[in-house]
Amino acid sequence: MDKVVDGTGASAWHAIADVCVPFDHPGLLADPPQEVHAYLPDVSRSQKKDFWRKEFWVARAGGAAVAAGSVEFSLVDNVHLASVEINVPPKLRRRGYGREMFEFLRAQCRSVGRSTLVGHVGAPLGGTSPGESFATAVGARMVLGEVRSELRTAMIDRSTLKELEKRSLAYAAGYEVLQWVDRAPDDVVEDLAQLRGSFLTEAPMGDLSLEPERWDVARIREWEQETVDRGRVRVATGARHAPSRRLVGYTEITAPRSRPQTAYQWDTLVAPDHRGHRLGLVMKIANFWQLDREIPGVETVQTWNAQENSHMVAINSALGFRAVERFGEWQIEI
Length: 334
Hints:
This protein is α+β, with helices and mostly antiparallel strands. It has helices at 7-24, 34-37, 97-111, 130-137, 158-169, 189-202, 217-229, 279-294, 310-319; strands spanning 2-3, 52-61, 64-74, 81-87, 116-123, 141-152, 175-181, 232-241, 246-256, 262-270, 300-306, 322-333.
């Protein structure tokens, strides 16, 4: 098993993902190579990571790359947990390469004290997938059901969206919208850290073995820089409570700078005491306009939502998102 430590290894890892992602998840593409290069030990920037680690591995047979795997884990919270990803080219499946990679990653995670693995597995709507069969075979169970939805920007009726924004703003008196690209303003970053720290306790997480995350300003800034290093541009919109001047909600969309056709909705959260003012809808619409301005060329926006998160699913449906794939978080104790 070869750890990815240079450009050659990164290219081999990415070549497998480049084949597997669109095959297993129609409509998606593998992230650009820079997503892997950003974690290499030979890149010309500081390698100090205080909050998390991510490693990439390639399995070879007869000198050829036959499987790609990665593992990611936090250093400050959820220290029992690691996230894993495994890809095997379709023509090389059912030969044991995926199982070999899984057993190797399991051993790696055990060696750093992890006891639980989680992985993100997709399947067609109304169907099953090889990924689900593999997860079941290694002893994992699905602990959170999700749906991937897609928004095609060419299909958006912008006049209807503006009318929806106008109606939503009528419920949001006493709040103001603020926006940023890549780096949060200094005057809201502490509030943003508090909000991010509450995300796992506020968003539906099913039976995932998760503890609240610990975020502070330093962690936010490291995460922001890492996102830039990965070649991504990120547009964010927040809602600030005017009387208290506190940030009480945020939403984010990101896209690779080198290939912006496919963008991704990341977190959206409104603090519990400030719900009921349609802030989620207000922020998402405002962030779509910012996406239009800041990231030309976006053709689709992808989002994942827990099936039980009916409120967010309804908001996304109102914006024009349509379900395209079933997903699940699978978990195994090791």
